[in-house]
Structure formats: C-alpha cells, structure tokens
Amino acid sequence: MAIFDFTLPGAGAVLAVALALLTAPTCAAESADPMARGKAIYVEQCATCHGAEGQGESGAYEAELVGDASVGELAAVIGDTMPEGEPELCVDQDAKAVAQYIHETFYSEAARLRNRPPQQQLSRLTAEQLQQSLADMYEHFFGSAWTEKKRGLSANYFNAGRWDKDKLKVERIDPAVDFDFGREAPVEGVTPDEFYIHWAGSLRVDHTGRYEIVVRSTCSFKLRFGHRDNTLINNHVQSEGKTEFRKALNLIAGRQYPLLIDFTQRKRKTEMPPANISLCWVPPGGVEEVIPPENLVPATMPNTFALQAKLPPDDESYGYARGTSVNRQWEDAVTQAALEFGVAAEKELWPQYKRKHRKDSNENRQRLRDFLAELIGVAFRQPIDEETRKIYIDKQLDAVDDDGQAIRRVCLLAINSPRFLYPTLDQQAPASNRVATRLALTLYDSLPSDEWLLKEIQKDQLNPEQPDAREHIREVATRMTNDARLHGKVMEMFFHWLDVDPSAEITKDQDKFEGFDRALVLDLRRSLERSLSDVFWSDASDYRQLFVGDRVWTNQRLNEFYGPAWDPEESHDAFAMVRSKPAPGERYGVLTHPMVMSHLSYYDTTSPIHRGVFLIRRVLGRTLRPPNEAFTPINPELHPDLTTRERVILQTGESKCQVCHEKINGLGFTLENFDAVGRYRTTEKDKPIDATGGYVSQDGTQVDFGSAEDLARYLAESEDAQRAFVEVVFEHFVKQPLAAYGSETAERLVKQFRESDFNMRRLIVEVAVTAAIHPHQQEKANESA
Description:
The chain has 27 helices and 18 strands. By secondary structure, the chain is an alpha+beta fold. The strands form five sheets. Strands 1, 2, 4, 6, 7, 9 and 12 form a seven-stranded antiparallel β-sheet that branches. Strands 3, 5, 8, 10 and 11 form a five-stranded antiparallel β-sheet that branches. Keywords: Heme, Iron, Metal-binding, Signal.
C-alpha cells in the first residue's frame, strides 16, 4: 500500500487546530482569497503545534498532518469539532479555508508527492526471493516444470512384488493416497498376498512454510521426494510394529516437488498383515489431513530444490516484504543457505552436468570450469566475463584439487556476492538481461533460468531499443504467467489483500459454534484458495467477480457446518472440493467468505470495527491513523440486550472517536449478516440485523448501503477500490512504491485495467512490463535532460 502513513488527524490534531482557530486574526477571516485566509490562520496560530509544513512538533502534536480525506470532509471535521466545546466559533467559510489550505499545501496525496516524491529503494533479495532464486538455479540443470491441469497421482498396479511390465494390471490416476485394502486384492487381476503399487507425480505447494509429511502403512514402502534419488522415508525393510513415519521440511510456494511411492505387499510364510497406506501432511498452521487432490499432479516434474536453512523475516511495515535490513543474522542465514546449496550442487547438479557433457573435453578440469561458469552466469543473471571467471572459478579451482570442495567454495562466494543478492545492481549488464531479470523478479520472485527465456536474452530480443520492443516484452511476460510459480505469488498477494494469514490459528467459542475446529478452518482455507484461483485463472480473470460471485468451493464438512448455502452443485465423495450451488442473497464473492469473516471477528462475536478497517484500508486503499489510545471492546455480558452494532455505536459515539469511526463503522456494519464464523444470519438477540451503512469516496461522493449486496456491487465498480487493487498488485509484485514510478504510471495502469474489463492477469503482465522497462526509460530521460 502507500509508502507513508497518510492519516486524518485524530483528537490531538482536532484540539490543536481548534485552539488555532479560536484566535484566528480578523484580517485572515476577511481575506477574499480562501487560500490566503487559511494560510494566515494556520501560520499565525497552528504552526507552533503542527510545524510550518504540517510535519508535527516535538512536545506538541508530533504526528504528521496528512491523510486522504477530501476538502469537504476536513471542513466538516473542523466545523463540527473545533474549537473543542465551542465549535460555533469556526464554521462555514473559515473552516473551509483552513481545510483547503492544509489539503492543497501538505495534507493530500498530490501535495505529498509534489513536496517529497518517493524514490525506488535499493533492496537485497527478500527471504522468499532468495529461496525461489536458489530453486531456479537448481532447476536450470534439470529443466523447468510445466503446468499440469490434471490432479492426483499416476498409479500402476502389478501382480508381482516389484516392477514388472509384463505383470502390470491397472494404470490409472488416484485422486489421493488413502487406501485400506485389508487382506483383499487392491484391483482386479492382482492377488491379495503379493502385489506392488507405484505412485508417481508431484506435490504442488501453495504457501511457503514448514510442512510435515506423514505416511502410515502396515506394509513395505519407500517415499522419494524432491529428487528421484532422494529417499525421504524408507520403510523398505519394515520396522517391526512401526506404522507411522514423519518428516518435517520447508517447502516453497509455487513449486511442484516430484513424489514417488513404491508400495509392496510381500508374500509371507507367516500370517499376512492387512495392507493399508495413507499419504498425509500437516501444512503451515493446519492439522494433519490426507494430501488433497488439488495439491497433487500426476506428472513427475523435474528435480527441485527447497532450502531448509532458516531465514529471518523481512520488513513488511510498508505493506509488502522489503529486503532493506542487512545485519549479522541475515548474513549468517545467507551463508548457511550458500553452504546448503553448495552440497546440492556437488551431489546433484554436478553429476547431472557430467552425464549431459560426458563427451566434452576435460583437460585442466575444463568440464568443471564450464559447469561453474554456467551456474554463476545464472546466479548473476548475465554471462560472466574473464575477470569474474578468474575470481570466482579459476582461483577457487587452483586452491583445491577436490572437485566437491571447489564447487562448495564457488557457491559460498557467489551466493554471498552482491551480484547475486542485489539483482537490480545491474547497470553494466546487457539490456535484454536487465529486462529478463526484472520480469523474473516481478513474476516469480526469482531469476531467469528457463531455457526459452535465456534464448530470448541471447538473441537480444528483450532489448527495449528493438522495434516493437514493448509488445514483444509483453508477449514474453504473458507466456511467463502460465506457470505454477506465478500461482504461488498470486495466492500470497490475495491472502495479504484479504488480511488473512494462512498459517494463523482461528478459534471460536465451542458453546456457540460447535464444530468450528482446526480441520474446518483448513477446509475453509482450501475453499478460499480454490475460489480465488477459480476467478483469477478463468478466461476473463475478472476482478469484479471477487465481490459479486455467488459460488464457493465446498465439501461434506463445510456443507454440514454452513448448511444449504454450501450444498454441492453435484454429488461427490466426502473428501473432494467441488463447486457449490449458487446462493444469491447469502454470498458475495470472496468478500463474505467465512475464512475472511471469521478472521475479522472475535472469539464469540463479530467485529464491525475490524471488518470496517479491513474494507477502508485494504479494499478501498484509504488511510487511518492508529487510535489515540488502546481500548477494550465492551463486554457483551455487560449489555446482554444490545446487538453488536448497538454496542459498537455505544463505544465509539464520542466525537474524538467519530473522526475515524464515522468511516469505519459505516462499512463494517454492512457485513453484520455474517456472524463470527461467517454463517449468514438475519437476526441477533432476537432483533433483525441492521446492515445499513455508508461511505464517502475520495471525490467526496456519499454512498449509502442497505446490505452487504449493496456494498459488494459498489466495490466491484468503485474507482477507489480499483486504484487500491492496482496499487496492491504493483507493490506486492515489484516490492517498490508505485508512486516512485511517477503519477502517470499509476494512471496508465488503472486505465489499462479498466479497458481490459478488469482482467487481473493482464494487470500483472502490465505491472511486469512496467517494472522491466522503467529503468531503461529513466536512463533515456536522464540522457535527454
């Protein structure tokens, strides 16, 4: 979101300006020029508290006098509340004059951009970017993953105790691995006392974090994961009495990890045990469950790397992750990452390279030198020159005779290099390399590694100086969006926009909401993810459907808890996620999804304040200052006859609260039909729900709402919401303030977004193209200046 906390002044500011207006000079009040009258009042009576340019003054009112209220809203606040206790002393034209002066001079966004234009900041790789970049450096040597629409795992059933193509009886796709065959044959044509099943495919990860892989089985099995030669769990020689096996590891969003299971029921002289196996996981913040079909693909993707070294969190105070802090903790973490990747390069990448280049000359370890040159070229995002080769390769190989040690030394040196850690410090790189670097960084949080993209660079086809360069770069960016890596980054963006932490635990009062447990929350998260993906990856990719869509993804557990509005569109097994039937009047896109509504509620009641703050800040892009003092919500037991709306009105009724809560409450109240777990309701405390509310847009237009439906339809068409969404997308993907790219960039992106019928994928493409070309355009502008 915005780079500064542009906020409407609270009670302190109200009082300070009120005191100023008490003694405003007569000559100012009589001035015919409102700006002159407002300036005179401000300079003579307000600057001592707020500073000459509204910057705040130590010992008086220290907060900056900035925000996004319109002149009319500011004038209304001044006219209604200033001076405190005697508001009639500053009304009408005087209040408007002060409001106009501070708004145009330093308060509004336009004034702030004019006075202090934001700048792009030099940033290192964020934790996510470091993980993604190392993963793509690794995958470069095995080939890139592709998009696979089918779900589940490929399964081969053999009437033998091992792989024997002559005894293959069944080939199919199993939606998940959760079987209890007992002492029966798993499929027709296979004997129950001896058989072998081979499951193959990949695990698709939506969120970066710590996962626990759990396999339960009474039979012999081996699970390979990430690399075809990497055995994660080995029960080939069965451990007597042990049937549960667990492994915890860090996995990265948007990656597809190859997964292979060899399952064997052996012929025995003793009594045959029942045959069963289940493949489960515990995702971040979730509970153990069978890995669902949507996270399994039947294609075995290329070998993949997942960094296990723990990285410190990045600064997210600006609304997006920024790699701005460099300290001992970060440096130690990068070193650990380099050491870990060095081992993988030695044990897995180097053998792969040697197999592919076994006929190449190896005089003076030339094959190893070529391997390291390719690895460093990918890491540094450009071909290496002779000086770089001498420092990073020749010197390291000359120092040690052991190939493995040499590889680890090179990886340690390269990954700790600013040329890897600071991807935009590339002014000396060829133009096509610079464009490709920014496309990969924007869309994947990574670096250029795909063979087809590297060929584009080699042919200099991404050079902004080429004819029709922008259109070709747009075509390349569009091709790059058809990738699972983008899916991971998009899902992260949506969860941030919706103010939902996918790993956070949500608990509710079981006396009121029996059955709302961690398993249900995990299903809600899956439902929200599928609902978001449904809209984003549709042909239209229509942003407006995020507010007005009337279907969600449901399963048996959700259906039982949420009732008929969550009935499936068609029959299904209990485990599967399927589309629901339409529920007009009870559901409005992801805005009212229970995962969102329950997250924005208390343990046992709704929270119109949390919901209102979410709407005004995240969805509408407006700014609010923190409350002047912490407050505890009124305990519902103290007023058992009051509805939630009535309690909130009681608590926030004071004029100092209303400066902000007039905005917050009018939005939050519109969602009162959805209780603390997101179930639709029409009454509370035996009283009809009052879901009326309102909003004043940035252009000063008053909008009234009668229900959540009115709100949803307004948000779908609101210019405030559209601009806010464009800013959220830009800053999440580029990790720089949109304003630093010039006001014309924001206007162009919003205009293109509208002209595309609010196509979100096209918006991301335009954001990527803008980030890729902007440095070149700036250099040209500087040369002309």
